[in-house]
Specification:
disordered N terminus, mainly alpha
Length: about 525
Amino acid sequence: MSAAGVEQEVDRGASPHSAERRQAARGGIIGILGAAIGSVMGFALTFILARALGEAGSGVVLQTIAIFTIVLGLAKAGMDTAAVWVLPRLQISDRSKLRGATMALLVPTAVVGILLALLMAVLAPQLGTGGDADSQQLVQAVQGASWFLPAAAIMVVALAATRGLGSIVPYAAIGNIGLPVARPLLVLGALGLGALGLGPIPVLASIAWAAPAAIGMLAALMVLWRRVDAHERGAGGRGALWPDRELNVQIWKFALPRWFSSGVEQSIIWFDVVLVGLIAGAGAAGVYGAASRFISVGLIVSTAMRMVISPRFSALLSENKTRQVQDLYSTTVSWIVLLGAPIYALFMFFAPTVLGWLGPGFESGSTALTVLCVGAIAFLMAGNVDALLMMSGRSGWMAANKVVVLVLNVIGNLWLVPLWGITGAAVSWAFSLLLDSVLASVESRIFLGIKFGARRVFYALFVAGACVAPVSVLTRVLMGQSTAAVFVAGSASMAALATWCWLDRKRLHLDDLALLSRTVRRKTPTAT
């Protein structure tokens, strides 16, 4: 039996479509749990920054995080996505090449990460041209965080490689739990050091946010090499330390367009925070950055599913199993919308309240948060179409899409932020997400024959809206904009959603989630 066969759990008599859905659901549950913990910790970090530093101080830290994340997108050199693409294929074709492929993924990442960290530190003073205290602190914060960029890049690629080798657990444990838990704890320590006069608090907090990447890198590398060794033992011997020229060329041909598009993609997500800070000041960046952090909650399911199904897309597409890809894509899109859209709906109804939790002044971003939620729902409706396009090997088209979207996003921010403030930034961001999803969906239909599946998606959206909107409107009328109203509306909405999902579980394919509890993994010796 192949390694891929050992990893799959297929019930006797189950169809390939059902088996793929169950594998996605199983991994998705692990990913969702990890992402949920990471999201809670992200909220804790945002809350700590907002309460301790206010709008301007938290704006410095959030701008630093934005710059670091954008540069990290380039520092990975596209090797994280390349890992998810190439390693599942090598497990099917030739496991003796796994060690060499892994080295070909990690070494360029380390080199590029070091070079970009140096460039980041050298160019940081350009951010301080404003001359005020906030801009000077931003320069120091960016320079301090840059030391940890190479470690962060290596960590991300190593964790992506473990996903490519068939396990979501290391990614969830290290990337979604360990790192997010460590960050608010270290930031609290930085606040204490700042209170003792050992440096500007926003600068210390920014460095504390970046520092856990070093430990995360070591943990990820240890797990990765153990998995490579395990696969090699199954193949009957250790492979070469470096890949042959043909495999190296394949990796780079895939990674190069993704290298570029990854930096552009992170710019689409984060560059508006930097632009808001440059145009409207650190205070506005703090409010907008805090509002945008709420968006990450609804992306938990989408992110978790992407971690799981990307390797499956790669393996299935390499075997030309288009029908199974279509079923897997359509089903997971409906799950993503069903579980993600209700969160955004609640935020839209209670935007002033949830932002008010962060402290005085943050509720001014309620309109921006509402717009961001609309854009995020549109993004969820496309599911993981980006992953589908990437795993088909068309990373060049992804790069072209991202360039178009980023250019329009920057133009939109430069035009709308002076007119509408952070609401203008939210409008530009929401339009960018919608355009990105449409482009990728059209290209997947043309190149792969994978359809959007409007019936499933819109039905899932209808279910989410029907469970949240009436309850939220009634709660607002009776209880107003209050914290108690948020929890009452949220509890009632989730209860209604759970009931609907149970009664309609077959149409929503949620029976595949329930079947997981009755599925027993078969431990079968691997044939070589």
